DNA sequence: GCATTTGCCTAAAGCCTGTAGGAAACCTAC
DNA sequence: GTAGGTTTCCTACAGGCTTTAGGCAAATGC
């Protein structure tokens, strides 16, 4: 019997594809095994189980998003940086909905601290450097950015904002404009 | 054999409790049956199955949230209304995390239109009446409110914003202040 | 070439979903 | 009060996913 060449990395990569195609709920040891033409039991020497697989997808997504956001941010500041930051997340979520979904899985503290999650808040702070906001307002602003972009993306994914005639892209631009103005009003708030 | 008195309403109510106690993922036909000391197969004449049960929790949560938000909004306007609106959602999510989670489930279009979901956007528009914002900006603003509050609540639930010394309530108040100012700057963009 | 390690296998137990058909409890009405 | 009909819950079963245990075959190393 020829070997399939299973590794944790390849299993997680397949799980990520499956998540994007069919949703995170379909990411199971069984379904991933099927992709490799292998029995489900064979995965268990490489990964801990279904939860592990999903956590792996989450960590992959956090890394990939941080990479893309960092790239989008290079050489930009102010409103440009804000739009690039937000756009990178939105584009990623649209291209990889299952991975994005996985990225919102709760991680235990240790795993979270070792993940690319920490880079995300650093990147948000990089955006805010264009706005001259001191602590503790800077932390508040990091949370605001995370909230509004994650919130928008997740509502857009769920509903598509589809039951009104107003275009979602227009709302996105409007939101970026207003956030830019909000941040520009600075620590003086 | 004494009858357990199963009804769709009682099953959904038990599912909602279970969701709050153990998370939406634990809401299964099996687990709910256990609560009634009944075989899982017995549920299937009352509800369609596990998905139905979760959808039922979602619809319940949407109704309950709309009720609470409407009550919180009564007699308020401006920043007061904004804070009451946002606070009602946040309080509900903290008191009923599983129901809140369920409320974000995607519903098919028909179900969504018949749900209390439509009341939520009406309530957001009620808050915005205190700010004199015309269409299409009003729609943009409805989406912004939904995004930022849902985003904040879901990030707060996932991470507790716990790995920094800055208090989450302080960020919440800061966010309300800034949003109030943002909306007050009005249609003048 | 032979021994060891590694990789995938089969087997099996346990839990969950959902369908089918049966029996007991409840209701209605005579 | 009891006969008939309906409702409610039951048992039985088929099928899927998870995960552990133990085996054989392929790859690796000496």
UniProtKB/TrEMBL annotation, chains A, B:
UniProtKB keywords: DNA-binding, Transcription, Transcription regulation
DNA-binding region (UniProt annotation): 28-47
One Pfam family hit: TetR_N
Alphabetical list of Gene3D superfamilies matching this protein: Homeodomain-like, Tetracycline Repressor, domain 2
Domain HTH tetR-type: 5-65
Name the record gives this protein: WHG domain-containing protein
UniProt source species: Streptomyces bohaiensis
